[in-house]
Amino acid sequence: MEPIKIMPCLDMKNGRVVKGVHFVDIREAGDPVENAVFYQAEGADELAMLDIAATLENRKTRLEWVKKVADQISIPLTVGGGISSLEDIEMVLGAGASKVSMNSAAVKNPELVKLASAKFGPEKITVAIDAKRNPAMPSGFELVVSGGTLPIAKDAVAWAGQCQELGAGVILPTSMDGDGTKAGYDIPFTKAISSAVSLPVVASGGAGKLEDFYEAVVDGGASVLLAASVFHFRLLKIQDVKDYLKSKGLAVA
Question: Does 80 reside within a domain?
């Protein structure tokens, strides 16, 4: 098994890092560059930066935010939000991102995942999957797009399998039921996704305590652990998480 990686996430709005609960109730969490530098020094293996309002505001990712952060760190940076074409991907990678994350645009145009993977390499293409519980879906999880505002009656787990076939390199599932709650990752959702694909799966949405990170790996099948609230508000240190996982016999990066 590959060593487990820790990935703080910078949700961006109006040039600042923010954090919500269930994708709403947004609160301020500081400057993106300061946060990025802090997390790298703390031992983060990767960093995610998501322009959470880009799709809703019908605009592209703010490249200046990407440049400022990428210039100050050496760890891999995954950037998402408003990326809807090969040109967008090229510009975001050109601004210093190591990977891009697509969500709504991939659902709208699955061919984009295929073309992007062929042009830039699967390792640079992450597909983010937002979902919420819906017993009417075969897996029990419904795909939601447009920043968590629009359920589209499509099975989220089946979509993950389709993304792998299209050439995605990483799947980043976020449970809207768990997002920002600090009540723990949505393990059934994470496990459903990791069981459906052979790609690296990023656990996202709801980390609150050390045990949550362990459960995401052992019970959820995740190999990358994304968290925001616990790190932004200094409830946990990245090294604490790594030490805990090591104490439980897991290899960490």
Answer: yes
